[in-house]
Give the backbone structure.
Amino acid sequence: MSEPLAPSKGPQPPEPEDGEPTTAAGRMAVAQRAGGVIVPVITALVAFLIGGLIVLGTGHDPIQAYWDIIKGAGLNWFAHPTNTDVATTSAYNFSQTLLQTTSLVLVGLAVAFAFRCGLFNIGGNGQYLMGLFVANWIGVSWVHLNRPSHVLVAVAGAAAAGAAWAGIAGFLKAAVGAHEVISTIMLNWIAYWIGSYLFQQGGPLQGPENKPLDVPISGKVVEGARIPVFWGNPELQGLHVGFFVAIGALVVFWLILNRTTLGYEVRAVGYNPDAAAYGGIKVRTNYIRAMAISGAFAGLAGGMDMLGYLYKYGTLDVQASSIGFLGIAVALLGRNTAVGVGLAAFLFGGLVYGTTQGLQSGVINPSLAGHLTELIEGLVVLFVGADLLILAVWNSRRRLKRKRPTPVPEPAEATP
Amino acid sequence: MSTYAGGVDRVMRSRLLDPRSLGTLGILLGILAFILAIPPLTQRSVTWSLVCGILAVLFGIVAASRGARRVGGGAIAAAVIGVSLAELATRSSTGNLDQVFTASLIASMLVFATPLTFAALGGIFSERSGVVNIGLEGMMLMGSFWGIWGADKTGSWVWGIFIAMASGGLLALVLAFFAIHLRADQIVVGVAINFLALGITGYGFVQIYHGNNVPTGISQIPNINLAKDSSHSFFAQAFGQLNLLIWVGILFVVLTHIVLFKTPIGLRIRACGEHPRAADTVGINVYLVRYAAVTLSGMLAAMGGAYLTVGYLNTFNENVTAGRGFIALAAVIFGNWRPFGAWGAALLFGFSTALAFRLNVYSDQAATLFQALPYVLTLIAVAGVIGRTIPPAADGRPYKKQ
């Protein structure tokens, strides 16, 4: 997974003088080279192991529980089950896992892109929600548009909304140096309350059919604005073609970062803003651009979820939404690289679906298993912190290696 | 300047036209715009508020253009907020407003502010020692679950609070270990802490209480009766029946201020947050101070969480804190990393929540948006419009011993 930063390909951001990079992204970049693919795998395994111990400690069989979660995620579909019932269920579950993966890839990319610019975008959830609101608004009310353009306009609107929402944080960072973590947290909660406002009883986006019933749920996206489903029954949340958009987004992410000037500048700023500024890169502009692109990914996720399978949204959904936060775990586990994010998103997509709706288990019930996902998520993010310990060791070793040839100045001539 | 004659006049004039005082005047006018619309004045049209608001904006612009940018910006912000609140108030009837703006509004403001106060004080200890604590929310959540669990199992709210503090402290130790010894990115670890707390409390809740049935009649933190129940005086309505922890919270604000700014311990904590190397040089054990501060921070945040469940709700729901830890974080920033500042911010946020809950009865839609106010204000604050927020210099930087 070291492809995007392999030394032979593309221009490299400057190395900092001191072994310890100043920004989180800089540290991550070194960690990436230090650990490669092994550390994330170990990280995930340890997290699952501890999760299993907790399951064991609370009196459930962990192996059976994990096996049920794997089946819940539909991964037994690959085993070509002969029983048609099992085959149907596993196929459905697997399509749902991919549906979750679609959104997770995009929110993961959102966090990863900002990370590569040295910014920690905790606001993925807010940007996701803003994209979702705009997609719902366009999808429900702009009915005069015909089919392909309606979908495209709604998706573009969602991405733009996400970009604008994240752009606020980027702008504040660039203009007055406001820390993006704080501003994105605040923007998350503002989006949360905006959503509660929009869909509540009498709110502007509450569905007209729901008004007399006093139900705080939006109107339903019209047929013409829905993203076509290619696998499964559209009435039962089939897998929509947005899945391929997510795959495409992974490629776009890689291309932007590794094959464009923009990407080079973003990475340079992320690795060391001072060095980048010295090299003539406009650091502030890049903060705004990186945040906007990052937010566009998250907004796109929200838009495609709305147009792909949700179709409507309520205040309770707004309050329960946490997919943007999962994006943090996806990006960190995926080391902020395209391939890594894709794989991590698949892992978490399976975990999310396999522990909730997909789970049919006599050992562990879905409400318990759902919290197991949160635990594993937390442990994964926590151990990404521990990765940095490995990085520290790596760093000191590398520094020693670099220094060794120099401190031997001709000893014979020094003494008379 | 050169002659004394007319100097007094000139000083008077310059002081009046001093951009800072113009800006302050603008802020006051912005607040006045709101006050006009609520009891006892209760203006029924928004006109006068609008006049005040426009004047405030003008003063703000003048102040900002003459160099006092922050105060000027503050005046503009105050004007916008004041006028929009006034507009809100004029929409509901006078009778409603009389019901909303009563002495008991102060009581409910204190109720909503107390969890924030505890968590914000925790945040101040942690950040003053140089460790950013994004995990306040998680630590609060731990306190609210294990607090009610403790009160349920032991039958005593006192033990509930202690168990809550122990759980929050333990989670904080995880943050401390990763942030201090492993020198991990503190924000990443803080995010992990929040996930972990969500998982642990949710898992425990389903495992122990099957996800819904926390027994009723769990030992509750008592109220302090300062006035007879029948009394209708302002004092009795506002302060007569407050929970014990509300008073403890206020006490802790004072204590935190004294500890941080009047004692050697506080000086050490602040030294570790401002310049850890210098602190290390004079013999302060930076790691020890940071460990202690972060653990204390977790215990305080957990106490805020315990107040929420053991003191106020007397039950637990999944993710019961619902972002209060983040509002507390906002209060820390808004209060400029000072106990009284953070308390003021917590009161302001508590007031806005209390008002939103009460306005709820009359104008549902506006009340919902109102809940976003703490976050908007903090966003404005970090943007540097109202005053300047200056974090401790070494906040968020891992320290490596040499």
User: Anything to note?
Assistant: Chain B has a mean pLDDT of 82. Chain B has two domains: 9-99, 103-361. The beta strands of chain B are 223-225, 241-243. The longest helix of chain B spans residues 286-313.
